[in-house]
Structures are given as C-alpha cells and as structure tokens.
Amino acid sequence: MSEVVEENAQKSLVPMWDAILDVYKEFAKICVRHNFRFYFIDGSAIGAVRHQGFIPWDDDLDVAMPREDYEAFLKVAPRELPRHLSVVTLDNTPGYYVLYGKVQETRRDVVEAVEKKVGYTLSNGIYIDIFPIDGYDYSRLRLAMTRAKVFVLTLVDRYVSGPFGKYSWRGKVAWVFGFLANIIFFKIQNQVQMARAYELCYGKRNCSGHEWTSRVQNWRNRRVFFPKEIWGAAKTGRFCGLDVPLPEKYDTYLSSIYGDYMKLPPEEKRKTTHSYDGLHLPWWLGPTTDKKPY
C-alpha cells in the first residue's frame, strides 16, 4: 500500500518538482559563479540521502547559507537572476514577515499551469526557501536567556497577530500576557516590528569567528543550534540527477532533528504541507491572509 501512495504522489508532484528544480538551478548558478556556500537542509537533505531526490510526498526545496554568503547573494541575485525569478525577503516585500528569503517564479501562466497539473492551489507560487545560518556565541546561560526572551516574544506575537476573540481559551490567556508584556517591554505595533524583534533577539552574525551556529527552522521564531563543524566542507549528494551540497556531517545534523531519518514516517503523515484549497496567494507579494503557509 505504501508503495502505491508514493507512486501516486510522485506522478502528481512531478510538474511541481520540475518547476522547483528550474528555480534551484538558477540559484545554484549564481552561487557557483560567486563561490557562495550553501547546503541542502531538512526534508531536502533527507530526500537527497534517502531518495536521491524529493521525498515522494514533498513539494518544496530548502537550502541554507552562512550569513555572509546569504547577504552577498541577496545583493547580486536581483541583477543576475532571470527576469522571471524574484528574490523575496522581509526587506523588499510588503506583507512578507519571514526571517528567511525565497527565490520565486513570477510568471502567472507557469504557476497556473503547474497548479492545473498537480491538482491543487499552490500556497505561495513556485519557489525555493533560503535560510541564513548565523554565528552564535553559545553558553547555557546565554541560550536560556535567549529562549526566555523568545518565549515572551511568542506571547506578544499572539497579541500582534490577531484580535482576542479569534483564539481558544488558552490562546486568550497567551494574548493577555502578550498584551501586558508588549506594553511593559516592547511597544510592538505590527508584524514587521514583530519580525524585527525576533531578528534582534537572535542577532545577524557571520559564521566566521563563532564556534556555534543558529538557524531559523520555522517561519519566524523557532531556532536550532549546531556546532559550526556540522556544516563544514559540503559533502556531495545526489538529487534528481544533480550533484548537490549537503552539510559535512549530515548524518549528525539530520539525526539531531529527526532521529532515525532513514525510516519512513507512518502513511498518514506522508502528505504535502504547502497547499490550501481555495487559497491563492500572490507569489510576488508573499502572504496576504491570516493563514501562514510556511
């Protein structure tokens, strides 16, 4: 039964994969041209190691770059990417409140053609996610203090993100504490300021000169921490017939996040995560509704 599920997923997602790979290839060309470092991460790294391509039910591609390479890429990419691709970041896109960037396909006809083939609306067009890897001055005390501040910011985020009445009773409790914390400590008024507060909490630091690194893991606030040696000199993996860079100690990296990453998850969890029926977000603007498809 599981083989049938994977085979059906592969058939329906092939157009999506092909479109994503087209975006990735243009990104990789720039990185090779300028010697920018990057690594396949998360599900994309698992895909390279376990499947030599996309996880059969996955519909995105994630890479990470050391902060210094990430910032340099953002400077050159707008003038070196083909005209049909756009760089989307918190700095250049109204309504986009995420602490990592995207390279996105901007041709409506291409996106709609892929949607028709895969059979569902794409939450944010066709893109790859690019996560910056920051240096971090690690100590248990510093990490505890950082996480405590992020916890308070998460409560404030609940207050900033929506009205009191939209939440469950637990959400309402968090909203009240977030409201009070914001009055006392932060004075945050909108989503952009909220994102900047998270960014300031963790800091934007080059990896050179630091033994530890910090990386955004979800759409805004959660971070994972690794020794810098995890990244190291990239190991070559195979992904849909391409040679791709993996973290030097990819087994340690993936095991620390996913445990036995070579073991397939239960069948009920083998499904795509980036589509919403009836929701079509303009990919050149990023999210424009209360739903956050990250």
Task: Please give a handful of descriptors for the protein shown.
7-stranded mixed beta sheet; 294 residues; Beta Polymerase, domain 2; two-stranded antiparallel sheet; 8 helices; 9 strands
Summarize the topology:
Blueprint: H1 2-34, E1 39-40, H2 42-51, E2 62-66, H3 67-80, E3 85-88, E4 101-105, H4 108-118, E5 126-136, H5 140-161, H6 169-186, H7 191-202, E6 212-216, E7 223-227, E8 235-239, E9 242-246, H8 250-258
Parallel strand pairs: 2-5
Antiparallel strand pairs: 1-2, 3-4, 4-5, 5-6, 6-7, 8-9
Q: Portion of residues in helices?
A: 40-55%
Question: Average pLDDT value?
Answer: 87
Overall 3D form: globular
- Uncertain residue segments: 284-294
Main beta sheet strand tally, sense and closure: 7 strands, mixed
Query: Can you tell me the CATH topology of the largest domain?
Result: Beta Polymerase, domain 2
Q: Count of DSSP helices?
A: 8
* Structure classification: alpha+beta
How many β strands by DSSP?
9
The secondary-structure element order is HEHEHEEHEHHHEEEEH
Radius of gyration: 19 Å
Q: What would CATH call the architecture of the largest domain?
A: 2-Layer Sandwich
Quickly count the domains: 2
Give the amount of beta strand, in percent. Answer: 15-25%
Q: According to CATH, what is the class of the largest domain?
A: Alpha Beta
The first-to-last residue Cα distance is 29 Å
Q: Could you explain how this protein is built, in words?
A:
With 294 residues, the chain is α+β, with helices and mostly antiparallel strands. The chain has 2 domains: 2-134 and 228-269, Beta Polymerase, domain 2; 140-197, no CATH class. Helix content is 44%, strand content 16%. It has 8 helices and 9 strands. The strands form 2 sheets. Strands 1, 2, 3, 4, 5, 6 and 7 form a 7-stranded mixed sheet that branches. Strands 8-9 form a two-stranded antiparallel ribbon. A hairpin with a 2-residue loop joins strand 8 (235-239) and strand 9 (242-246). Helix 1 packs antiparallel against helix 4 (108-118), helix 5 (140-161) crosses helix 6 (169-186) and helix 5 (140-161) runs antiparallel to helix 7.
